[in-house]
Amino acid sequence: MKTCYDIIQTLVRTEKGTMIQMDRKYLFHVAKKANKIEIKNAVEEIYKVKVQAVNTSVVPSKMKRVRQEQGPTTPWKKAVVTLKEGQSIEVT
Description:
Radius of gyration: 15 Å
Number of strands: 6
Strand content: 35-45%
Strand order of the largest sheet: 1-2-6-3
Distance between the termini: 29 Å
CATH topology: Alpha-Beta Plaits
Number of helices: 3
């Protein structure tokens, strides 16, 4: 059985991720096989907030080059979680 910490891997702290926090939206790196219901339940359990909506997408791999070696990055799944009015996650 998957725990909520297996589903939610990290809170993405990028420029885009911090800009959408003003709209009560938070960007998470989640498990590849997690569905929206599992993501919603995991966020509610970990952060003790109420989730309004979850939008997911799979970020495809890109070709990157390090010195002479070239290879793909790992594809990953991201989730944009919208919280209900008055809810927020304390980001430290």
